[in-house]
Write a structure and sequence with these properties.
Elements (H helix, E strand, L loop, with lengths): L1 H25 L2 H172 L4 H48 L4 H20 L6 H14 L6 H14 L3 H15 L3 H15 L5 H8 L10 H15 L5 H14 L4 H12 L5 H14 L6 H14 L3 H14 L6 H15 L3 H14 L5 H15 L3 H14 L6 H14 L3 H14 L6 H15 L3 H14 L4 H13 L2
Helix pairs in contact: 1-2, 2-3, 4-5, 5-6, 6-7, 6-8, 7-8, 7-10, 8-9, 10-11, 11-12, 12-13, 13-14, 14-15, 15-16, 16-17, 16-18, 17-18, 18-19, 19-20, 20-21, 21-22, 22-23, 23-24
């Protein structure tokens, strides 16, 4: 291509030269000189083009050589790739042969596994047979339990017979009292007759003395009868009190101490026997039964032994964190004794074996129940509260189980319900169960001062799970039942926000905001409620009500951080209803009340524009512009104000 261009240039030069020679003969000297100069210029340009083309040609040659070298390198690389390909094919063939061998081995292993599977199936059959045996044992245990129940019923019948006997004895005593009272009445009548006789025979001293003697004897007899009657009454009262106490105990479900001891021993024997069987298949059931014994008989002298056995069962099931927690409970509640020392050793052993972390072990061993004077049930709850603060996610279900057992035995401990809810809320997807626990708390403690916060917490949980209707319901119920609670305006504001933003019910939102403003004017939520009420009115394009609400903020809460903003909004609302004079006044008021606010220069400039464009008051506009120049010289609106002044004063 470059050669062709060079040939064309040479031919062009030749043609120009021949043209020039032919024309030379016909033209004058001056003309020829001018053409010569022009031709020389053209020749120079052509020469320059020639040099440029030559350089381009040389560059192309260099690039050609470079491409040739690259082609050579690519050829070498392709040959190398071919060699690598052949090697890879060879390696792949070897690998395929190896896989075939492994497949054959795997088939042999599969045959062996089938044989093992048959053996396992046989083991499963044997296990099923063992389970059947266990079921039989369990049935037997149930029968024994039924027998125990019958024994208890028989003892209750025996007690009833005793009560019936006491009732009969009481009736006999009452009949005796009636008889004695009859005798006393008879004696009284006799005394009256004797007195009449004495009056009749006063004159006869001998008879009188005899009669006196008889009278004294009768008096002694009457006194003796009174003493016996008092004893009978005392015995009757004691029997009556004893009978009443027994009846009250039975009505309240209180089992007499001797029966309680007997039941305790039977339950203890059952727990020990069940634990001694060491059946992995019912490990969880055994743990449940032993924990139930500890909870029911916390004050028993054997409860620490059973608690220790529970920890061992958790260890057998490889639930080491739970086992450590159970041992810590033993240490915390019983504080001294053989099993306390063993429990501490168990925790340290699990730490050494790295079954629990060192940090968790140290925290468990540092749990304290604050002295030994506390009751065991108090120590139990104190243990739960401390454990709540140190465990990780894996032990949340264990704490929930502990709280359920504690509340089953002591259902009137208000704080236990609070801890249970907090534990449920940090577990996954347990919000509704937390709400149910809170609702139960409300039913048990309707007049407790803390119940107000329970209402609000239920509302907050419903709000979190986006059940807004129930959230509003509990917020408002809490405020209605406890209007003097310090958090009442806070949650009433939350209720208003849900009505406005989530449920899109403007009327109920407005009512809630107005309730806060009217009922809690001194609360920190009151100016916020006014602001949000105004914003809601603005969305509804009810600008007069926006102005009314926001003017209250400026008047009643001038130090509020939102006051400058609401003044600007008041001005904008006046503009929307075409009251430009009030709009300008609002913008000017911002300068008067909040001169240091960053938006003041802009709003003053807007006031000047309104005076100029809408109110045709040029003097006031100039006055406002000059105010901007004087007080905000470094602000961008000062330059704009200066421009307006120049235009208006021309």
């Amino acid at each position: 291509m470059i050669k062709v261009r060079l040939l064309v240039l040479i031919m062009f030069v030749g043609i120009l030269s021949s043209s020039w020679v032919g024309a030379e003969e016909e033209k004058g000297v001056d003309e020829l000189q001018a053409e010569l100069n022009l031709s020389q210029i053209k020749l120079k340009r052509i020469s320059d083009q020639k040099d440029a083309l030559s350089k381009e040609y040389n560059a192309c040659v260099i690039e050609r050589d470079k491409n040739a070298e690259n082609i050579k390198q690519l050829t070498i690389s392709i040959n190398q790739k071919e060699d690598e390909k052949a090697k890879i094919q060879q390696d792949a063939k070897k690998e395929i042969d190896g896989i075939k061998k492994q497949l054959a081995d795997a088939m042999d292993e599969g045959i062996n596994l089938q044989a093992q599977l048959k053996e396992k199936m046989q083991v499963v059959k044997d296990k099923n047979a063992e389970i059947g045996t266990l079921n039989t044992r369990l049935s037997s245990e149930k029968e024994q339990s039924a027998i125990q129940q019958k024994d208890l019923q028989a003892q209750q019948g025996k007690l009833q017979k005793e009560i019936d006997g006491l009732t009969a004895t009481l009736k006999e005593k009452e009949n005796t009292i009636v008889k004695v009272e009859g005798q006393m009445t008879t004696i009284g009548n006799q005394l009256k007759e004797i007195s009449a006789t004495l009056e009749k025979y006063k004159t006869d001293e001998v008879q009188t003395a005899a009669l006196k003697e008889n009278l004294n004897k009768e008096k002694d007899a009457v006194q003796q009868s009174s003493i016996e009657m008092a004893k009978i009454k005392a015995e009757s009262t004691a029997l009556n009190n004893q009978l009443t106490e027994r009846l009250n105990q039975l009505m309240k479900g209180i089992v007499p101490e001797e029966i309680k001891k007997e039941q305790n021993q039977k339950q203890l024997d059952y727990a020990k026997r069940l634990n001694s069987m060491k059946l992995k298949e019912i490990n969880a059931y055994t743990i449940m039964e032993l924990e139930r014994y500890v909870a029911n008989y916390l004050g028993s002298e054997n409860s620490d032994e059973i608690q220790f056995a529970v920890g061992q069962l958790y260890e057998d099931g490889k639930k080491y964190n739970e086992a450590a927690a159970v041992y810590a409970k033993l240490i915390c509640i019983w504080t001294t004794g053989t099993f306390v020392s063993k429990a501490k050793g168990k925790i340290r052993d699990m730490e050494k074996a790295k079954k629990i972390t060192k940090k968790f072990s140290q925290k468990l061993l540092s749990l304290s129940c604050e002295g030994e004077s506390r009751k065991r049930e108090e120590k139990w709850f104190n243990y739960i509260k401390q454990l709540f603060t140190i465990v990780n996610t894996s032990l949340y279900p264990y704490i929930d189980h502990e709280l359920d057992e504690f509340l089953r035995c002591y259902p009137i401990v208000f704080d236990a319900y609070q801890v249970k809810v907090q534990n449920l809320l940090r577990m996954k997807n347990q919000e509704y169960l937390a709400i149910a626990t809170y609702v139960k708390t409300i039913q048990l403690y309707p007049n407790q001062p803390q119940i107000a916060q329970v209402y609000f917490e239920i509302g907050r949980i419903f709000d979190t799970i986006k059940d807004y209707q129930n959230a509003v319901s509990f917020y408002q119920d809490g405020v209605a039942k406890f209007p003097d609670n310090t958090n009442a305006p806070k949650y009433l504001l939350e209720s208003a926000r849900i009505w406005a933003n989530k449920l899109k019910n403007a009327n109920k939102a407005i009512k809630s905001y107005e309730t806060i403003i009217a009922a809690y004017p001194k609360s920190e939520q009151s100016p916020v409620a006014l602001f949000e009420l105004g914003r809601l009115f603005e969305q509804l394009k009810r600008y007069e009500q926006v102005i009314e609400a926001y003017n209250r903020i400026v008047k009643e809460y001038p130090q509020s951080s939102i006051a400058p903003l609401v003044l600007i909004t008041i001005g904008e609302c006046y503009e929307k209803i075409s009251d430009y004079e009030q709009a300008a006044n609002s913008y000017s008021q911002l300068y008067q009340q909040y001169p240091k606010d960053s938006r003041t220069p802009e709003m003053l400039y807007r006031a000047g524009q309104l005076q100029e464009d809408n109110l045709n008051s040029l003097d006031k506009a100039i006055e406002i512009y000059q105010l901007i120049l004087k007080n905000f010289a470094d602000n961008s609106y000062a330059k704009k104000a200066e421009g307006r002044i120049k235009k208006l004063t021309k």
